[in-house]
Structures are given as C-alpha cells and as structure tokens.
Amino acid sequence: MKKTHLKRVAAIAIAAMMAGTALAGCGGSNSSSGSKSESGSADGAKGSVYWLNFKPEIDETLQSLAKKYKEAKGVEVKVVTAASGTYITTLTAEMDKSNPPTLFVIGNQQGVKDWGDFALDLTDTAIAKELNTDAYNLKDADGKLVSIGYCYECYGIIANPTLVEKAGHKMEEIKNFAGLKTVAEDIHKKAGELGFDAFSSSDMDDSSSWRFTGHMANLEYFYEEKAAGKTWTECPATITGEFLPNYKNLYDLCINNSLTAPADLSAGGHNAEEEFINGKAAFFVNGSWEFAAVSEKVPNAVMIPYYCGVEGEEKAGLNCGTENCWAVNSKVSKEDQQATIDFMVWLVSDTDASKTMVEQLGVMPYKNAAQSTNGFLNNAEAYTKDGCYVMDWATNFQPNVDEYRKDLVSALNAYNADQSDANWAKVKEAFVDGWAKQYKAIQE
Amino acid sequence: MIQASTTATDAAKKPAAKKRKASFKTGHSSMTKRSMRKWAWLFIGPVFVSFIIGFLWPFGQGIYLSFCGKFSVISDAHLKGIENYVKAFSDETFFHAFWFTALFAVVSVVLINLLAFSIAYALTQGVKGSNLFRTIFFMPNLIGGIVLGYLWSMIFDGLLDLWTTQNLVDNATYGFWGLIILLLWQQAGYMMIIYIAGLQAVPDDMLEAAKIDGATKTQTLFKVIIPNIMPSITICTFLTLTNSFKLYDQNLSLTGGKPARLTEMLALNISNGYSNMATRGMAQAKAVVFFILVATLGILQLVSTRKKEVQQ
C-alpha cells in the first residue's frame, strides 16, 4: 500500500516537472533579467519600476544601474531588453500583461500616435523640471508631453585626420562637397601606395544598410524641409526628391572611392568599423555611438557633416536627434508611476549614475547630468556654437520604415552592380514614389 | 500477388485486430491495461496542456484578431468586420508571395523526393560504407535554418562571383534556385532516412518471387518496390510539401525577400506585415488564409497518396 502511494507521489512530481519545463518554453524568452517574481507585489506600497529597454547594447549597463538603485533606495527595478528589431512586438505583448512596463520608449511621431494613449502627461513632473532643453521631447496633437529625450546622438562622416594628412591634405580643405571630393578621390587614386583608401565599405546587408537608407537619406529629407522653410511635425504624404542629386553625390563618392568594389556591397560581410579603426580607410559613415570603439585606436577622430553639394553647406552641422525618449505608463498605479519618475530623476542627476549613462549614451540634456565625454557629440556642439545649422532627424518620419528601406536597399543594390541612369531612376522611384506608396499603406 | 488497394475501413480494422492478438500473446493483463488507462493522462496531459496554451488558444485569438480594427495591445482590439481580408486580398505582394511559394513547393517537392529516394535506393544496395554515407547525408538536417541561410548566401555569392557581378540578393532567379538548392541539401537526407526505412521493410520473399519470375531491375522497382513503399512516399511528400509552404527561416536569412520583395515567400510576407501597427490586422488575416491553404493542401495530398498505399 505504502509503495503504491510513494509511486503516485513520484509520478505526480514528475508530471509537474514535465509540465513546468514544457510551459517554461512558452514565455519569458526575451527577458534578460530574471527578477519577475520579486518585482511588483513585494514592495506594493512603495511602487516598483519596470523598464522595457530597446537598445540591446546598453542592457548590461542598465542591469547594473538597476542593481545599484536597489541598493541605494531599496526600490525594485526590473529591466527587460527587447531583442534587436523586436521592440514593438515585445511592447505589444508586455503592455497586455498584469505587470506591464512602467517605463518604455516612444521614439518618434509614429510612436506617439500608436502608443500615446499609454503615456502619462509628463508636463511639470519632477523629471521634466530636470531638462535643460525641450528640443528632444515629443508631444501629441493636444500638446500632451508624451515622451522626453534622455539622450541625443548625432551622425555624419567620421574622419581620421592623421590619414588625411598622410595623403598630403588637410582637414581644413574639407569645408564642402568639392573639398571632400578632391580629398577622397585623391586618396583613392593613391590607395595602392598609401596602404589605405578613402571610404570604408558601405555594405548593403541588414547590419549596415541603415547607414545609407536611414542616415544618409536624412540629408535629402532635411534639405527638402529646409527649402520649404518648415520642420516636419508629422510624416508628409509625399516628398519631392528635390535634393536626391545631392544624396547621389555623396553616395557615389562613398561607393566609388572605397575599399570594396560597388558590386560586392550587396553581399555584405565587410566590417567597416574595423577597417576604419585599423587605419585602412580615412572616412567612415556612422554616428556618435561609435566614439568608444573608434577613439581607442584613432583618438583624434572627428566627425564632419554630410557635405553633398548643397548651396551654403559650409554652414552645415551634424545630424542631431534622438529616438531615445522615455514615456511613463499611464495605466499603472500612482505608486509605480512615482517610483518610475524618481528612478528617472536619479539616473539623470546622481553623479555616478549619470556618468555611466553619459558614457554609454552620449549627451543627456539635463541640468545636473554628467558632462559628455563623447568627442563626436562635442564636435556637434562646436558646429552649433560656430553658428552652423543642425540637421534634424527628418529621417525618423520614413513611413512604414522597414518596408520603405527594404525597397531602397534593393534599388541601391541594382545601382551598385551597374551605375546606369536607368538604375538610378529606380533608386529615385524607391526613394520618392516609395515614400508615397508606404505612406498610403499605413493609412487606415 | 499484390493487392493494389483495399478499402479504408479494412485498413483500419486490421492493425487493431493485430494489436489485440499481440497483447494476448505477450501477456498484457487486463490489470496493466487498466493502469495504462488510469495513468494515460499523466503522459498525455502535459503535452495536451502545452498544446492548448501554445497553439490552440493563440490560434483562436489569431482568428479573432483578423476580424479586428487597428489595435495597439490585444486586449484593446475590437471587432470590425472583414476589412482585413479585403486588404489582404488586394495586396499584390501577397499574391506574388503565393505564386512564388507555390512554384517553389512544386519544384522542391519533386526534386527533394527524387533525390532522397535515389540516395536511399543506392544506399540499400549493400554498398560498402553505406552507414557512413547515411550519416553524412543526414547531417545537414541538424543545422538550423537561419545558420544555413547565412552560410549558403556566402557560398552562393562566392560562386556567382566567378561569372557575374550580381550577388544572390540582386536577382530573383538566383534567389529562387538558391532557396531550392539550400532546401534540397538540408532536407534530402531526412527524407532519405524515411525512404531507407521503407525500402528495408519491403518483404524479401516478394523481391525473390519477382526475381524468379524474371522481372528486370526496373520492373522490380516500379512494380514491387514503389507500391510497397507508398506509406513512405505519402509521409515524405506531405512533409516536403508543408515544409516548402511554411518555409521561413531559410527565406529570411538567405534572401530576406530581396530584391524588392521578389523572393518573399508567404510566411515571410506575413511576418513582415506585423512590424507595423497599421498592417497588423491584415497580416493576421493573411495568416488565417495561409493556415487554411496549407491545411487543405496537406489533407488533399494525404488523402490522394493514401489511396495508393498497399496492404501487406
């Protein structure tokens, strides 16, 4: 009798274990911190923080900051990072759970439209009072402060002055497209004897194409905006492509004076960053987040604007903006909201915490945050101080962005393989008509 | 000698009768049976529960969502009607993906099965080292689809470099054949194992009888062997057909739909629609249509090949 009883207990235990392992596979695959059960109820009165982060590269830093905050203030902070490219789908799923994120990211106007209902109006909150500019904030049509920038970034062309000088030129020569072209073409011509080339590879695979279909494309949108004398506040239904020839100027210069033959770019597999760091190329199209990686071996690297042959571009600055904007969930308890705002204030005002954040993220536009150590962002500020115009991130308005960029990549690939006018016409089609097409695709 | 076909009911009855006999012979007592019945839930239960949570429930929810308007989170979705289906059916990329997938399925089903059967046939002729070859042919199947896609894209680009400036992602025709070769390489080994099992089960006395009757090798193959391995053919065509239709990982990593969504297959087309809130409902509607399509095809194919199976 006893024996069968024992058997039964064992059987049930095994069954429970099986069910457990079977179900474990179903959930939580994208959670990188494991403190799910601890958060929430335990400190119910105090409130807790759950940050859904969208940048995998800063996950480690955020996890350590969360731990520090728990030690300092005794408040539980859970940080979950969505896997690369899955932020929106992760947010969709997490928002529906009983313990949804209290802190998440709404990075652009499309996000404001889609997720604005979930955002607390941050006007006059403690964190809003810490800001030193409202340039990176996002508001909805009614003026509700939906999200606030926690850092900003910039992009342009990263240059290695040492190599430029080795080739017999000076950085001062590069004040516009003509100057850039002269230097780049000369370096490319002498690449054999110099041992380095002008531009690092501009691969068109998914890990690199965004530098051209997202970032460099910004110069076209920006100058179009500027010519019309306004700043976009929502995605326009159509664009004219008036400045596409300027995009072509810079793009052609990049692919034709580079380490890699244009026809090989579609396959990818070159490491542009490595090429630049190891002194194989004098120019590298990328952004301020590269500073840490680049400055170790090229400490004097500087970032210069996208010179592309537009009139008056001697006064151009870098492309500055952000998609790093915090929103606080309006549908969680008051305690959780308060705890979240307290945590945000700590991040931007505590000496150590803000220093860690700044090292990882660039500049934080807050009164009491640590100073930036990022050379490229300092370049951006220097340009602004000299009275140059900042090229804002109009590229953030690209409609149905993934599809839009995919079509553009395909067209650019065809052009890379054969730089004919017919193929450029296809690039123009993807760039301009593609915009209208994707805009239409996402309307109700 | 060989019964071409028996009725379905006969087929169902026979194994059951066999089993009853077998259980009597090996002495399965009624007590074991009772305890089997009693404990069956223990073994079926966990899988069944996971199946409901991981498959049936989301599946039902998916059908519901396909009839909803634009939604941010699922609990926020509201019924709206068949609008998403109208959108899905007026989406030309969906149609392109459908025809591309259909063509891909036809070509890959034929090629994979021919190749797998040929290898299986060759490796059951008592050649030295058969086991080693079987293992090697099976191995590609152990590598995940995503990894395979990236590996093969490098191989193809390297090969294409020999005679053209275009890469795999620049040309839809290359992309199509690239996918076929990849899938052929990956799946032929798996199907081969199934065919080998089928070939080994062909009764020796039948083969001997055929030999004595003076049948040539070809005659033996088509009149004896193939009718006898129809169950293997059924399962292999079913697997290759549904695998081809559902292909996703390899498509994503090998071509990603490039150029200009021309090599996008159905599953990738659907998942691409999910990235934007405005097209989510449509993507969900496509997914329901996709399910019906794959299920119908699978069942039709099963029924039609089952009819050709023989009773031994």
Q: Write down the overall mean pLDDT of chain A.
A: 87
Look at the helices and sheets of chain B and give the structural class.
mainly alpha
Report the order of strands and helices of chain A: HEHEHEHHEEEHHHEHHHEHEEEHHHEHH
Largest sheet of chain A: 6 strands, mixed
Architecture overview:
The complex is a heterodimer of chains A (444) and B (312). With 444 residues, chain A is an alpha/beta fold. Chain A is built from 17 helices and twelve strands. Chain A has helices at 2-24, 59-73, 87-95, 109-115, 126-130, 161-166, 177-189, 191-194, 210-228, 244-256, 272-277, 291-295, 334-349, 351-361, 375-385, 401-417, 421-441, and strands spanning 49-53, 77-81, 103-105, 138-139, 145-149, 153-159, 197-199, 281-287, 302-304, 316-321, 325-328, 389-392. In chain A, helix 16 (401-417) packs antiparallel against helix 17. Chain A is globular and about 65 Å long. The relative contact order of chain A is 0.15. By secondary structure, chain B is mainly alpha-helical. Chain B is globular, with a radius of gyration of 24 Å.
List the helices and strands and how they pair.
The complex is a heterodimer of chains A (444) and B (312).
Chain A (H helix, E strand, L loop, with lengths): L1 H23 L24 E5 L5 H15 L3 E5 L5 H9 L7 E3 L3 H7 L10 H5 L7 E2 L5 E5 L3 E7 L1 H6 L10 H13 L1 H4 L2 E3 L10 H19 L15 H13 L15 H6 L3 E7 L3 H5 L6 E3 L11 E6 L3 E4 L5 H16 L1 H11 L13 H11 L3 E4 L8 H17 L3 H21 L3
Parallel strand pairs in A: 1-2, 7-8, 10-12
Antiparallel strand pairs in A: 3-11, 4-5, 5-11, 6-8, 6-9, 6-10
Chain B lengths: L7 H18 L4 H36 L17 H7 L2 H32 L6 H9 L6 H16 L11 H29 L3 H9 L4 H12 L1 H17 L2 H6 L11 H8 L6 H27 L6
